């Protein structure tokens, strides 16, 4: 038989559990960060597919969470008439402070792309676990081919 005291303890524990779950849910909700990266390319084109038929002009990273890494695979095609090496940069962060908590890197290995060659690389967006004050962001992803 469950006593009144045991019922009260169970009810209190249930209320605390619900309040805790709600608090964590609210914190998690407010730390989600929607984001988009616009692709800017020079001497190369960026595609979603290895056949270079679906041009990639932006990347919707979706909702990002503190401490999370998000990856997207893209294909870079040398559209110049000379072999190219690639560089990656970011610019035009909005808000500017987002670049203090978010970084972008890739799997490019200094491979020289022949004329018309398509190279597969994975872009990784890394969100710092310490991110604060950023509710949405966007930036330019700059991929440059240099011959």
SSE topology string: HEEEEEEEE
Q: What is the end-to-end distance?
A: 82 Å
Which radius of gyration do the C-alpha atoms yield? 23 Å
The number of distinct structural domains comes to 2
Outline? elongated
Structural classification: alpha+beta
How large is the share of residues in beta strands? 35-45%
Quick one: CATH class of the largest domain? Mainly Beta
User: What number is the mean pLDDT?
Assistant: 85
CATH topology of the largest domain: Immunoglobulin-like
Helical stretch tally: 1
Described by its quaternary structure, the protein is: single chain
Largest sheet: 4 strands, mixed
What is the topological layout?
Blueprint: H1 4-30, E1 33-42, E2 44-47, E3 58-64, E4 69-78, E5 85-94, E6 102-106, E7 118-127, E8 137-146
Parallel strand pairs: 1-8
Antiparallel strand pairs: 1-3, 2-4, 4-7, 5-8, 6-7
């Amino acid at each position: 038989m469950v006593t009144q005291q045991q019922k009260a303890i169970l009810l209190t524990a249930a209320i605390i559990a619900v309040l805790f779950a709600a608090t964590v849910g609210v914190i998690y909700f407010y730390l989600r960060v929607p984001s988009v990266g616009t692709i800017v390319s020079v001497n190369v084109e960026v595609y979603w597919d290895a056949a270079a038929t679906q041009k990639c002009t932006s990347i919707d990273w979706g909702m990002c969470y503190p401490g999370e890494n998000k990856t997207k695979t893209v294909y870079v095609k040398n559209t110049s008439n000379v072999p190219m090496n690639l560089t990656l940069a970011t610019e035009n962060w909005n808000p500017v402070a987002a670049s203090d908590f978010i970084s972008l890197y890739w799997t490019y290995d200094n491979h020289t792309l022949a004329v018309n060659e398509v190279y597969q690389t994975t872009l990784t967006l890394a969100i710092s676990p310490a991110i604060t004050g950023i509710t949405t962001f966007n930036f330019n992803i700059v991929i440059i081919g240099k011959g």
